[in-house]
Specification:
With about 300 residues, this protein is α+β, with helices and mostly antiparallel strands. It has two domains: about 120 residues, Aminotransferase class 4, branched-chain amino acid transferase, N-terminal domain (D-amino Acid Aminotransferase, Chain A, domain 1); about 160 residues, D-amino Acid Aminotransferase, subunit A, domain 2 (D-amino Acid Aminotransferase, Chain A, domain 2, Alpha-Beta Barrel), CATH 3.20.10.10. It is globular. Bound molecules: ligand PPE. Ligand PPE binds next to helix 7 and strand 14.
Length: about 300
């Protein structure tokens, strides 16, 4: 589906028209994948549009940049304000937000250090990433033949643009084989994460997820929110598990989490139904609470909302 254009994109301190948000073909990041980005969402709440965990996303952007030795020429607070401004300018009640730090046109060659650091923030309306049916009924997963990154080949704690070549390979493989999404194993064979989401299983009402340092998965902000929600709902959470692919086949329930995807049940993995194949009670309770939280209906989690003003 083509993107729905919005009014303005923030580029290096100014709001420019959507059609004018262009970069030079010799931008370093275009050639070498040398950039960092975030995915954030704004939701409609009873008090107007609010951005979910904006501060945490902007902090992660700065951590990603630090890992790549990219010096962002703004403060965290400035990018928080710029994000609010861009959402306000869109006039949208709900949108996806894509802050991007990229190296621009300057010198060619692998050394990124001499290149100018550019920042953009774009917003657009984006429905359920894995489809409304996926959110309601669950998605069909395939364990990818592609492995997730080795943290000593590429730093998995960063959300680096170039790293997503791996995710795209896995996504295309899964789609071509007739599945909705891929789950990737770590180089050592443990369940790591999906192409753009973290993964959880449920067994005997315990909520279990891979240890992100062990398996090189991104420390997801949705994952973190869901861990808190699950504990508050009274479930025991094991966030340091080492899961192998057969744990996915034998789980009572499984689901994935991400800003774009939100909370999505998994109906099958490699053609084995997870539980009954329909979303289970723990997944449903967590999903329902997550949607109520992001839309400002849960007082307990109001601190996670950043009102656009
Ligand atoms: N793992 C990966 C590889 C990942 O890209 C994301 C976010 C997550 C886990 C979940 O992180 P969080 O959003 O903080 O809960 N993926 C972003 C980009 C997705 C895309 O396809 O583009 C997102 O969800 O915005």
């Amino acid at each position: 589906m083509p993107l729905t254009k919005t009014n303005k994109i923030w580029m290096d301190g100014v709001l420019v028209d959507w059609d004018d948000a262009k970069v030079h073909v010799l931008s370093h990041s275009l050639h070498y994948g040398s950039g960092a980005f975030e995915g954030v969402r704004a939701y409609s709440t009873p008090e107007g549009p609010a951005i979910f965990r904006l501060k945490d996303h902007i902090s992660r952007l700065f951590r990603s940049a630090r890992i790549f030795m990219i010096d962002i020429p703004y403060t965290e607070q400035e990018l928080i304000e710029a994000t609010r401004l861009t959402v306000r300018a869109s006039g949208l009640e709900e949108c996806y937000i894509r802050p991007l730090v990229y190296l621009g046109y300057g010198e060619m060659g692998l050394n990124p250090l001499p290149c100018p650091v550019n920042v953009s923030i774009a917003v657009w309306p984006w429905g359920s990433y894995l489809g409304d049916e996926g959110v309601a009924k669950g998605v069909r997963m395939k364990v990818s033949t592609w492995r997730r990154h080795d943290p000593n080949a590429i730093p998995t704690a960063a959300k680096g643009t170039g790293m997503y070549v791996n995710s795209s390979l896995a996504k295309v493989e899964a789609l071509k084989a007739g599945y909705d999404e891929a789950v990737l194993l770590s180089p050592q064979g443990f369940v790591s994460e999906c192409t753009g989401e973290n993964i959880f299983i449920v067994r005997d009402s315990r909520v279990i997820l891979p240890d992100s340092s062990l398996v090189g998965s991104l420390g997801g902000i949705t994952q973190d929110s869901v861990i808190t929600i699950a504990r508050d709902l009274g479930y025991e959470v094991d966030e340091h598990a080492a899961l192998v692919r057969s744990d996915l086949y034998t789980a009572d329930e499984a689901f994935l989490t991400g800003t774009a995807a939100e909370v999505v049940p998994i109906s099958s993995v490699d053609d084995r139904l997870v539980g009954t194949g329909s979303p289970g009670p723990v997944t449903k309770a967590i999903q329902e609470t997550y949607f109520a939280t992001v839309r400002g209906k849960m007082d307990r989690y109001k601190d996670w909302l950043d009102h656009v003003g």
